[in-house]
Design brief:
The protein is α/β, with parallel strands linked by helices. It has a single domain, classed as Rossmann fold (3-Layer(aba) Sandwich), CATH 3.40.50. About 30% of the residues lie in helices and about 15% in strands. The protein has an eight-stranded mixed β-sheet with strand order 1-2-4-3-7-8-9-10, sandwiched between helices. Strands 5-6 form a two-stranded antiparallel sheet. It is globular.
């Protein structure tokens, strides 16, 4: 393998890196060697690693934000948010965190620079070592990790915290930033939401959505209550003991005032409402709406 020092990257900004072991997931890796912060984005029901977060990918390297995110690696996690159970999606996220963030398997960051030759295809049985480089300019040791979730992604993150409450898992030391998390329940939005309110069509739509395992779980009050009950109980215990070593028991939460999809749960003291935002828009920064980027950058810089 070529050493990281030989990897020619730009002197500023981030570059894309895709993970073969985690289909659809990718990272924006800083070209700096001094990176100590990782930010992992987890999309919601029916979303994806790219579209859900809209301009985050472009705006982090804009002149106004470069200094705030230049020493951060950004990871966009993809999972089967419709056709898998919440627990299965949680297991995928925990595996991603273990293999890429907490105890990184460096094979996830290798890139082949061998050109595909005709004789390679003909003589496929002859195994030769690939010439590879590392996508990272230096080995990372992240001292702070942020988990950023939208909608179902907030539930998946919370469930991951719940699953590792016993012990001293690294996920408990993560900072949580959640946009309109579905921790209090979920209903269809937009055009689907309109149809859901029609007497006959609503029944048909609900029957169709009920075929999606994730939708079933997001409508399961017992599941959501169990996640809240366990994390809130541990949070109270930590507060009583003045133990600040497990910040993932709490979260900074953003709600959109025009959200008609999730039911806000205001048990977290660190929360706020964004004006003129619905469920889909609340996590998508753009030139005329920088709030998601502003709030995240403030937390990254304050740690």
């Amino acid at each position: 393998m070529v050493s990281p020092e030989q990897f020619d990257v730009e002197d500023f900004g981030h570059h894309y890196h895709y993970f073969e072991q985690f289909e659809g997931s990718f990272a924006l890796l800083s070209s700096l060697e001094t990176v100590q912060t990782a930010i992992i984005f987890v999309h919601g029901f029916g979303g994806d690693a790219l579209g859900t977060w809209n301009e985050f990918h472009m705006m982090v390297d804009d002149i106004d934000w470069t200094s705030r995110f230049s020493e951060s690696d950004l990871f966009f996690f993809q999972y089967r948010s419709v056709w898998e159970r919440i627990q299965s999606s949680t297991d995928r996220l925990l595996r991603f965190l273990d293999k890429v963030i907490f105890q990184p398997d460096m094979s996830n960051f290798t890139v082949s620079i061998d050109a595909l030759r005709v004789e390679d295809a003909v003589q496929a049985d002859q195994e030769e070592p690939l010439n590879t480089i590392s996508a990272l300019p230096a080995v990372r040791q992240y001292h702070q990790v942020f988990l950023v979730g939208h909608s179902e992604g907030g539930v998946v993150i919370r469930n991951g915290v719940k699953d590792r409450l016993n012990g001293n898992s690294p996920i408990l030391r993560c900072q949580l930033v959640l946009f309109a998390p579905a921790i209090g329940g979920y209903a269809p939005a937009g055009f689907l939401g309109t149809l859901a309110n029609w007497p006959f069509l609503g029944t048909v739509l609900d029957a169709v959505l009920q075929a999606a395992p994730a939708y079933q779980d997001l409508r399961d009050n017992d599941l959501l209550k169990e996640i809240r009950r366990k994390t809130e109980r541990k949070d109270r215990e930590a507060s009583k003991a003045k133990d600040k070593s497990k910040p993932a028991l709490g979260a900074y939460i953003v709600w959109g005032r025009k959200d008609r999809v999730v039911k806000p749960r205001k048990y977290d003291q660190d929360s706020e409402d964004f004006e003129d935002c619905n469920h889909v828009e609340v996590c998508k920064p753009r030139s005329s709406y920088c709030n998601p980027l502003v709030r995240l950058s403030e937390r990254v810089q304050s740690k």
